[in-house]
Design brief:
The protein is an alpha+beta fold. 42% of the residues lie in helices and 29% in strands.
């Protein structure tokens, strides 16, 4: 399973819902949604600034995390960004693979 960083920004309607529901209930709901998609919510943090929350989830595959992102974004209450997180070992594997590449203009 791979880990993903999921960050999001609430719309005005999403913020109203969060204020009504509270942070703990929202986190519980997100953990349940991730579990339903076959994953595990490892961390969930609220943030100040351009991004309202950060979550780290372990998901079985790209389709599962995409289903979560599409469902959440499709609600219209949250704008979501998903980032694949890589381990040091995965970087080692990638660094060990040889591919053919020529930079533009060279």
């Amino acid at each position: 399973m791979s880990r993903y960083l999921i960050s999001g920004t609430y719309t005005a309607e999403g913020s109203k819902g969060l204020m009504h529901e509270g942070g703990s209930k929202r986190r519980e709901h997100i953990a349940g949604m991730v579990k339903d998609a076959g994953g595990t919510l490892e961390a969930y943090y609220w943030a100040l600034g351009d991004t309202d929350f950060y979550a780290i989830a372990e998901m079985p595959d790209v389709a599962s995390v995409t289903a979560v992102a599409l469902t959440v974004s499709g609600s219209g209450a949250v704008r979501v960004k998903t980032t694949v997180l890589l381990t040091a070992e995965e970087i080692d594997q990638a660094a060990g693979r040889k591919v053919s590449y020529r930079p533009p203009g060279v």
